[in-house]
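Researcher: Going back to the complex we discussed earlier. I've cleaned up the inputs and rechecked each line, so this should be the final set. Can you rerun the prediction on the complete assembly and write out the structure?
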Amino acid sequence: MERNLDVMAIHGNGASLRVLEQAGVSGASLLIAVTDLDEVNMLSCMLAKQAGAHTTIARVRDPDYDTDLASDGTYPGVDVTINPDHQAAADIARLVKNPDSSEFDYLAGGKVQILSYVVEPDSPVAHTRVRELNIATATLVAILRNGDVLIPRGDTAILPGDKVFVVGRRGVPSVFGWRAGREATRLRTVSIIGGSSIGYYIARAIEPLAAHGVQLKLFEKDHDRCRALAEAFPRLTVIQGDPSNLEVLHDENVESSDAAAVVGDNDQSNLLTGYLLKRMGVPRVVVSLKRTEYLPFTGPMDLDATVVPRVSAAAAILKIIRGDHVLSLALLKEARAEVLEVLASEDCPACGIPLRNLGVPAGAVIGVLVRGGQVIVPRGDTGILPGDHVIVFTLESAREETARLFELR
Amino acid sequence: MNIRSVIGSVSRIVAVFGALMLAPAAVSLLFGESDWTAFLISSIVTAAVGVVGALLAAPGTDWRIGNREGMAITTLGWTACALFGALPFLLAGSMSTPADAVFETMSGLTTTGATILLDVEAQSHAILFWRSFLHWLGGMGIVVLSIALLPGLQVGGSQLFRAEVPGPLPDRLEPRIRETAQRLWGIYTLLTVGEAVLLRLFGMSLFDAVTHAFGTVATGGFSTANKSLEAWNSPAIHLTVTAFMFLAGMNFTLHYRALRGNFEPIAKDDELRTYTGIVLAAIALISLDLLAHSNYSLWNTLRHSSFQVVSVITTTGFTTVDYDVWPPLSRAILLILMFVGGSGGSTGGAIKVVRMNVLAKHSIRELKRAVYPRRVTVVRLNGKAVPEEVSSAVLAFIILYLSVFLLSMLAMSAMGLDFMSAVGAVAATLGNIGPGFGLVGPTCNYSTVPAVGKWLLSFCMLVGRLEVYTVLSLLVPGFWRRS
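Model: Rerun complete. Updated structure for the full complex:
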């Protein structure tokens, strides 16, 4: 470990009080417990908290230990429980539920939305320059082209196949969405391919849709798992069959789904199934991958989104590490870019200066400000005031410089 | 098979049962009748046999009661009580043959209410009380009563409890089985007292009120009058009995929750909804049929149809009218209700509504599976998944129940009963209802059935009360093998 990473390694049982003290846990500002055993993680958090650690994070994967995120319930001594599969499922469920966007996150308590669109060749915005776009209600913050993230400038041209990211008041960017060439579709059928823990959490997140007439299908090979899912979710149609078997998919008419989440245990078969579904004509296909190596090659497969549980969990952990000024944080791709939501403090160095004079680094864009509940799309003469929520889009290379503007840790 | 623990436990149940025979002896003395000696002698003999049996089996006994011991104790305990309970009838001279006396006792204990007595009103108060008291003891169950009263039985109590309490999924109300048994008996007593008070208020004598309350809450059906409830031409009494029969046909767990102030599970209970639905639908259909084909007034139509529907579905067997002269559709509906029965965990008999629920849902599921063979669906009851083992146990139960019915019906036909009487007699005894159709209809009784038929029907009553498995498993090869 010490050879590969710049860390101090202590060999021992993380749930042992002696080992924790040896690691100096009493003065630690953060303890992250991510062993394979949920119980060990929770126990070491509880011990560390008692010994004086400031913040504790435990990875907890078993749904039995799952605390309801909505009620903010958690175990004593464990400040945050992170469940990679749950995080990933939450991301996928959001992608599935909002047919207008590819990857997005709600910021500032739901007032602000980040949306992304793929620019189709026949879209009216294809081959136009950014300054020619007339969007008063949102800010274009990034373009993903051939796997690279670009920060748009006035003379940047938008090309077909680009994925563009916009930040704006919730609801408004769909106007832009229409202009980008994608029409909203109403969900009628959603298919989940794979019934392991991500599949379970997705089913849990989107089952309420069934009350609105959406048909939910889940495909899983293992009979016992099918039975468990059918027991847990009365409204879910559980289909026992190997999803890599085309006959199974055809029999259940999977090609007429409006959205599909491919979340099996095997990355290769997920990619293949995702690709097949896309070819069969499923409008939205989201694929989960365990590892990040394949991500650069998924572009030509035309998948609408890929989610990696580890990255989803990392985003959640980073948000806590960044401290109290960062309210929410969304990671794009493999952390090559982030969207930060920052609360401008009283003594923030950026306050009071018009944006054009602020010297925002080249790799960052200020998306929108939220002031007193109002979403403001900033212009060159807008200034940041203390108390504003600032939505900043930044590349990894510009993160340090951006952080200095807002005095982030 | 732990024979010693079976003998020991059965003996304890018999001893308790012997002590309970003192109650009718007291009634006899109270009314200044002479047959108290018959009850006293029976009580002493029964209690003595029980105590001696318990002492013989007791020393150094391993009291473990497993699944098989539980079923053996329950079946043998009931059989023993039916035999000893017949003693007073024979000693007091109200019945002359063992077949008659055992039939009557079994009919009482299993809450069937089928009688061989030609003239009920000619019997002494003690005999009438004993018949109704047998109902009351058998309604909640003599084994459950023994668990509630006696220490030492609760170790294997849950096995015994499961063997006796009706329904595929008995609920535990309290963590300890003995407390559960006590709670159930508490609710049961409360309902009985409540009904007796109401019946007394509406004009019955105290004796009639108590005996009919016993017969209602246990869903038994023995009356102290030859014409059953028809003898009291009082709408208030008929409505009270209808209401309490309905309550007795509900799952007692729901009563327990209601007494705790927890009404939510009651409002959402699948079985209660089905039970209520079946009752209302049957009343509506029979009322329409009666209005079209008979000359009752609208009020009397509703009064008799609701009384008869509730009486038959809860397997009580009281009558306010001779339903055997009703039009064919009404009689067909009543025959079907004889198979439906009360709710699981109630004092009612027959197949039980909850099993009908599972059967219907399971069948629909299989039908859908024919269309979508790959889909995995779960049979749910009250939102909870019913395990596959329970579903298949329910299906097997219904098949076994119907097999016993068909075979017994064949046997009764062989004894010379006409078709409708044979069907009615077996359906009414297997389902613990009481009066059937034809020769054994409401205005007639079982005295004309040949002695062999009485033994067979007594067996049917036991099989029905202990829900088939408990009794029939004793016939499985290997049941009696050691360990």
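Model: Worth noting: The longest strand of chain B covers residues 375-376.
Researcher: Good, that matches what I expected from the previous run.
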